């Protein structure tokens, strides 16, 4: 299905993604208010809570009702048969930042991306605790021609953009739970004047709204960890690049692990350092 036919068939595609994210957020907040999160440990040693499962069900149900022709690949239900190379599919992390959820920092998100031919085309990142919602919508029939926006808890919508980069005043973002010496070494090449810490997809959103310039991740991540926020960042003028080749991060690969990457603001020439 082409982007043109997708737009014609589902004119409210991003609205459907936003609705699914908000409904998932309500499920998450319901568990967040309880004392028992029902924490389990998955085979990869990452935590899983009742909030992950309920949010995943809310998203799957909503998208299946509103956009039934587009398959869903989700962190919580992924199997080897869920590969959709060179196709259009939703890529979902129903609760990105489960560790932050368990620690009750508030820095966790609901991530829903639309992947088109291996690229992060559209994305919704919802922050249940603050009520902020970041998304990338279509201005034209090509997802290249789109912008990014932020909706606050009052429903006020504002366009967001990466800031103009000053190489002498770079602001970096680091993971709140997953930093390492390799990441620190990478950052030293850019000599940031300030480093911020954030959880989940909020790191990408800081760059997208002009509050930071650079976020390297030299550790394990999966496609569903990055797809939605990658789309938002692209809409705001930035992008996410493989560290080994500086090519744009791709999705729907044979292996769902991401390579090491760096998210960057528009105008930051990563190859100069």
Q: Return the string of H and E elements.
A: HHEEHEEHEEEEEEHEHEHEE
Number of domains: 2
Number of helices: 7
Assign an overall shape.
globular
Mean pLDDT across the residues is 87
Strand order of the largest sheet: 3-4-5-6-7-8-9
Work out the helicity level: 25-40%
Taking the sheet with the most strands, its summary is: 7 strands, mixed
Oligomer: single chain
- Please identify, by name, the CATH architecture of the largest domain: 2-Layer Sandwich
Structure, explained:
By secondary structure, the chain is α+β, with helices and mostly antiparallel strands. It has two domains: 3-160, Fructose-1,6-Bisphosphatase, Chain A, domain 1 (2-Layer Sandwich); 171-272, 3-Layer(aba) Sandwich (D-Maltodextrin-Binding Protein, domain 2). It is 29% helix and 25% strand. The protein is globular, with a radius of gyration of 17 Å. The termini are far apart. Mean pLDDT is 87; it is low at 140-145.
Offer a concise description of the structure:
The protein has 7 helices and 14 strands. The protein is an alpha+beta fold and 273 residues long.
């Amino acid at each position: 299905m082409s982007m043109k036919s997708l737009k014609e068939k589902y004119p409210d595609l991003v609205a459907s993604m936003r609705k699914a994210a908000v409904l998932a957020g309500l499920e998450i907040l319901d568990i967040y208010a309880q004392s028992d999160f029902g924490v389990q440990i998955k085979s990869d040693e990452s935590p899983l809570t009742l909030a992950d499962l309920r949010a995943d069900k809310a998203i799957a149900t909503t998208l299946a009702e509103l956009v039934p022709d587009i398959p869903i690949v989700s962190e919580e239900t992924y199997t080897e048969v869920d590969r959709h190379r060179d196709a259009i599919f939703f890529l979902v992390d129903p609760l990105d930042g489960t560790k932050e959820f368990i620690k009750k920092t508030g820095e966790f998100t609901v991530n829903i991306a639309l992947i088109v031919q291996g690229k992060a085309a559209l994305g919704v990142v919802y922050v249940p605790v603050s009520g902020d919602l970041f998304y990338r919508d279509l201005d034209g029939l090509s997802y290249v021609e789109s912008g990014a926006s932020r909706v606050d808890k009052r429903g006020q919508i504002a366009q967001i953009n990466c800031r103009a980069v000053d190489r002498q005043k770079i602001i970096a973002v680091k993971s709140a739970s997953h930093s390492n010496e390799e990441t620190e070494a990478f950052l030293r090449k850019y000599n940031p004047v300030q480093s911020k810490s954030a959880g989940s997809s909020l790191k990408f959103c800081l760059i997208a709204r002009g509050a930071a310039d650079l976020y390297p991740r030299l550790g394990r991540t999966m496609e569903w960890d990055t797809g939605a926020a990658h789309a938002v960042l692209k809409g705001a003028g930035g992008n996410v690049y493989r560290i080994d080749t500086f090519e744009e991060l791709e999705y729907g690969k044979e292996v769902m692990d991401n390579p090491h990457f760096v998210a960057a603001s528009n105008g930051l020439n990563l190859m100069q350092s």
